[in-house]
Amino acid sequence: MTIDDTLLAPSAGPRSPDWFLGATRWTQLTFTEDDPPALDVDFWVDVMKRTRSNAICLSAGGYMAFYPTQIPFHYRSEQLGDRDSFGEIVEQARRLGMHVMARVDPHAVHTDAATAHPEWLDHGPDGTPVEHESMPGLWWTDPMSSSHWDFTTRIAEEIVREYDIDAVFANRWEGRRRVSYNPHTRAAFQAEAGLDLPDETDPHDPAWPVFTAWRRRRLSELVVHWDDAVRAIKPHVRFLPNRGAALTRDLDRDLVEDRYPMFFVDKQGRSDIEPSWTPGRIGKRARGLYPDRPVALITSVGPEDHELRWKDSVADPHETRGLVVDGFAQGALPWFTKFKAECFDDRWVAPLAEAFQLHARVEEETGHLRHTADVALLDCVDRTASTPFGHGHGGGAHEDGVYQALVEARIPFEYIAEEALAPDRLAGISVLVIPTGADLDPATVTTIEAYVERGGGLVTAFDAGLTTGPDGPRLALGDLQGVRLAGGLRGPLKNKYMTLERPHPLTDGYDGAQRILAGAQVLDIGTLPGAEIAFRFVPDYPDLPMEEVYPRPGAALPAVVTREHPGGGRTAYIAFDLGEVFWRSLQSDHGRLIAAAVRWARGEQPARVQVTGQGLVDLAVREAPGELAVTVVNLTDPMAMRGQRHDAMPLHDQEVVLAVPDGGELASARLVIAGAPATAEVREGRLHIPLDRIDDLEVVHVTWTPTGAPAAQHGGEA
Questions:
Q1: InterPro entries attached here (predicted)?
Q2: Are 498 and 623 within one domain?
């Protein structure tokens, strides 16, 4: 792809409380101590222009200052000299009409500060300060101490007073994510809780739940404290500490609800076996909790492997471009981060410029549309963590497998966070899917029951709704789905199968098979009146010796149970770890079952949006009254299931099929990336739009007019 010179002018926005709405493409530059003498401001201005960045996050201070700070013990880069590296870039960014966010990192201090202020330091279980493991002579700070509450606050206030910025961004502000045994922290916790700090070596220490709640509240109060401090100086400025995919789930939402007008998710790249749809899921998951708040996804220019660190390296351009594209297709605004202003390898510039320009093109034409889908995954609260240092959301491999199956099946879907589940969030949702989720909140169960009674579809698996009460374990959604526990959880099992009980839409596609593989973990269940069994488990039998591998007589318990409800709702319960086992083994029979269950639960009405063809694609649907946009992201690549992508494989012969709305007819159909009208034909009430070639992505943008109204010119017959 070549650079489009017509897209070089960045968008701008005023200095106002809602400035963040115009911050849709981010450059981040993280200085190193030796950067100031060689800082090439012109190079970075060119990068910001080429990427059409309208916002920048720039290193200012905290651990190290890149401006002439006047605060004692605020370590100033020894190579800053008489330059103001931070200020120079801020000035250029403002000339380009960009928003500016100052980055501070309070996680460590130098020896002089540590000696003068030992009360700032993180302490280990033995009561001694914790030296930085990567850089001897530095010391970890304690986020509960005056290091964050006073010292970092003064730094932020100085930056806001002296520079024309819109926000302050805190990186690594939560400390080591370990218990700090700082004497002041210990005393504060003891005074409030009446307990000593929990023992890190004992996950069953009764102090853990109390400490978790205390830590959550104190960190949330810190967010409020910082935000109040900068807004007192300039009311439009916000202090926005870094977040992960959990957003505010590990904070006190009641305290920080109004403190995050947008989110910045620090997931800089793929590692291990993360699939290429990982960036898109971040956008969906954020929208599931806060549907109306922007979220930006931080992507590194280099490879991300937490054990093999190459911060001055460059990722394959196909990988970089693909991460950005899949992220923004699902609503995660593009943000790239470059460590060190000096460039040893500039191969990252072109792919990021290309990807950011693709976003600009899509934003200009369809950015006003909202994401939508009629299938949703319930993003359940993780209630299993014994310490506060987990990831903050549930799902794991169970969710990964269901996500992969729906992507393969080309079923567009969204997320709804359990905390945000309400009747209005379920409006327009045909099928709610719960891959896993023990101990659902009783309010969640009540909302789901009412949803099914109104005609909604529900697909659950394994321990979704499994609850232990005074009378023992039960399935909280069991009465609704027509199942009851007949035993406990069993596994891991080998050689576990299930038979096709009778012809049913869920058993289609297994021609020639009397039975198919099941899972490794199963729940023994029975059925209630009105339920129908689609699959039954084959009784357990050994996997070795080979001479003993054959079925034995025994109870053939239900494996997959469906139920049709009087109000039109449909439910399906799968009594084994379907999502997790599909993720682990990627057996097509498991993926087929997940997709079939969702399609059956939707009911007889065909999907409003379909995309046909071969290959792996990630779909996103956006709409507004009279408009619909379908984004097709090309994930077809040998490295789709783990990084890095090494090549781009164009996708051919795809077709987007849309239901023509009642009372409407086609006004226009356009291919946004190709920049051309789309060929469009209405057949039997459905609009067919062929896509001859997709490189990174294509966006089909369709507008409708009321029947009989004049139609605009479009690319084919209406």
A1: Class_I_gatase-like (IPR029062), Divisome_Glycosyl_Hydrolase (IPR052177), GH (IPR017853), GHL6 (IPR028212)
A2: no
Q: Which residues contact 485 (CB under 8 A, 6 or more apart)?
A: 473, 474, 475, 478, 523, 524, 525, 526
Residue among 698, 624, 626 at smallest CA distance from 660: 626
| Interatomic CA distance for residues 432 and 460, integer angstroms | 8
pLDDT in tens, 139-155: 999 999 999 999 999 99
pLDDT digit string (tens) for 397-455? 999 999 999 999 999 999 999 999 999 999 999 999 999 998 999 999 999 999 999 99
User: pLDDT averaged over the chain?
Assistant: 93
The type of residue at 15 is R
Residue-wise over 664-688: b if at least 16 C-beta within 10 A, else e? Answer: ebbbbbbbbbbeeebbbeeeeeebb
Tokens at 620, concatenated: 């996103």
Q: What is the pLDDT of residue 688?
A: 98
Query: Using CA atoms, how far apart are residues 4 and 353, in angstroms rounded to an integer?
Result: 10
What is the CATH number for 389? Answer: 3.40.50.880
Query: 517 CB contacts (<8 Å, ≥6 apart)?
Result: 496, 497, 498, 587, 589, 590
In this structure, what are the phi and psi dihedrals at residue 81, rounded to the nearest 5 degrees? Answer: 60, -135
Cβ-contact 151, 177 below 8 angstroms: no
Contact 176, 108 (CB under 8 A): no
Amino acid identity for residue 402 in this structure? V
**Identity of the residue numbered 646:** H
Look up residue 21 and give its two tokens: 């709405």
3-state per-residue secondary structure call for 147-206? HHHHHHHHHHHHHHHHCCCCEEEECCCCCCCCCCCCHHHHHHHHHHHCCCCCCCCCCCCC
627-634/483-490 β-pairing: unpaired
Backbone angles phi, psi at 123, to 5 degrees: -120, 145
* Whole-structure pTM value: 0.94
Q: What are phi and psi of 466, to 5 degrees?
A: -70, 125
Is the torsion defined by CA of 563, 564, 567, 568 positive or negative? positive
Query: Alpha carbon 491 to chain centroid distance?
Result: 30
* Tens digit of each residue's pLDDT (9 = 90 or more) over 511-529: 999 999 999 999 999 999 9
Judgement on whether residues 640 and 541 belong to the same structural domain of the protein: no
Decide: 453 and 567 in contact? Cβ < 8 Å: yes
pLDDT, one tens digit per residue, over 221-245 is 999 999 999 999 999 999 999 998 8
DSSP class per residue in 98-118: -EEEEEEE-SEEEHHHHHH-G
Last residue of some domain: 566, 585, 602? 602
Radius of gyration for the alpha carbons in the chain, expressed in angstroms and rounded: 27
Pairing, β 167-170 against β 332-339: unpaired
- Residues 398, 446: one domain? yes
Say yes or no to pLDDT of 290 above 50.
Answer: yes
Length of the chain (residues):
718
Strands, DSSP E only, in 426-574? 431-434, 457-461, 466-469, 472-475, 483-490, 497-500, 515-517, 522-527, 531-537, 558-564, 570-574
Which of 243, 261, 279 is the last residue before a domain boundary?
261
- Together in a domain, 590 and 614: no
Task: Give dist(CA 358, CA 335) in Å, integer.
Answer: 13
**Hey, how many other C-beta atoms are within 10 angstroms of the C-beta on 169?**
22
Give the count of domains, the chain: 3
Residue 556: exposure state from Cβ atoms within 10 A (0-12, 13-18, ≥19): middle
Query: Beta partners for 168?
Result: 102, 239
Distance CA 712, CA 695 (A): 28
Task: Kindly give, in sequence order, each residue whose CB lies less than 8 Å from that of residue 65, ignoring residues fewer than 6 positions away.
Answer: 74, 75, 76, 77, 80, 155
